[in-house]
Amino acid sequence: MEETNCSNNENNNAQPPYNSSAYSNFASVYDTFMDNVPYGEWGEYLHALLEEYGIHDGLVVDLGCGTGTMTEYLAEKGYDMIGVDNSSDMLAIAMEKKIESGKDILYLMQDMRELDLYGSARAIVSICDSVNYITEPEELCEVFRHVGEFLDDDGFFIFDFNTDYKYREVIGEQTIAENREDCSFIWDNYYYEEERINEYELSLFIRDEDLSGEDGDVFRRYQETHYQRGYILSEMEELIRSAGMVPVKAYDAFTRDEPSETSERIYMIVKKGEV
Questions:
Q1: Looking at residue 201, which CATH number applies to its domain?
Q2: Running DSSP on this structure, what letter comes out for residue 4?
Q3: Domain of 136?
Q4: DSSP secondary structure string, 201-247?
Q5: Exposed, middle or buried by CB within 10 Å (0-12, 13-18, 19+), for 179?
Q6: Where does this protein have coiled-coil stretches (predicted)?
Q7: Which of the two ends of the chain, N or C, has the fewest CB atoms closer than 10 A to its terminal CB?
Q8: Taking the C-alpha atoms of 29, 111, 148 and 107 in order, what is their torsion angle to the nearest 10 degrees?
Q9: Beta-sheet strand order (sheet of 219-229)
Q10: What is the pLDDT of residues 170-212, one digit of tens each?
Q11: Pick from 130, 38, 110, 124: which is nearest to 80 by CA?
């Protein structure tokens, strides 16, 4: 693989931009459609990794925190949490959860490519394929560089990513649809193999409470477009090294197994400087 330089942000091959408007309308129904995701099991796995690498307490940053489900989980485990996301709509829901739980969580609206914290953290985590939304390798390298800047010297960065295999062989060119009482969605996937970009065309149908009544329900239609890039492990490792950090370990998601060619999601543990 050709070496990637974090400072080289020139885009010779036009790629879809990091979409800051993603999850604008989806935010209001995100948790409804994600209720089948085993967040408890995912949280246990992530917490076990943090413990394994000596992160038992202290400040932890949830990068790409969305509606704050995992942020709340880690706060419950005793960590001092900061949640970072670039969607005001997602953060608004996270704030509602914070008020309900009473947890002392700080939420920041920031683009992860421009991460700017008030100090360093014991650990930074980023799950649910948030990094796949960074479709330019050079820009992802910048994300890693910023992460390194705000990690304690003995801190760790733990993140997951969807692999190129998953987009190419599993969900690419597939349509996913789901219908609920108050909302439904149609999710069309288009995979561009040469660029390794998966485009999501998301059509949402959300019940309008103000217009619905005894005469029937009224649903409003919204459309969003999302882009994610499929990464491969060797590419991730090179980007991490180019950002001045060290890849420590990679796992096939939710296991302690080595990743394989058919791994759909990979977890990585990264440390700043020498291991």
A1: 2.20.25.110
A2: P
A3: 27-163+231-272
A4: EEEEEEE-TTT-BTTB--EEEEEEEEEEE-B-HHHHHHHHHHTTEEE
A5: exposed
A6: none
A7: C
A8: -60
A9: 175-179, 183-192, 197-207, 219-229
A10: 999 999 888 888 888 898 999 999 999 999 898 888 878 777 7
A11: 124
Q: Return mean pLDDT, the chain.
A: 88
Question: Which has more confidence, 100 or 4?
Answer: 100
Q: Are residues 118 and 185 in the same domain?
A: no
The strand pair at 197-207 and 219-229 is best described as antiparallel
Same domain, 58 and 156: yes
Per-residue DSSP letter, 10: -
Q: 186 and 157 in one domain? A: no
pLDDT of residue 12: 37
Q: Tens digits of per-residue pLDDT, 210-233?
A: 777 777 788 888 888 989 999 999
Q: Are residues 84 and 173 in the same domain?
A: no
Do 87 and 215 share a structural domain?
A: no
Per residue in 81-131, pLDDT (tens digit) is 999 999 998 899 999 999 999 999 999 999 999 999 999 999 999 999 999
Q: CA 55, 57, 63: angle at the middle one, nearest 5? A: 70
Q: Tell me if 42 is assigned to some domain.
A: yes
Phi and psi at residue 148, to the nearest 5°: -60, -35
Number of structural domains, the chain?
2
Pair 174, 245 in one domain: no
CATH number at residue 138: 3.40.50.150
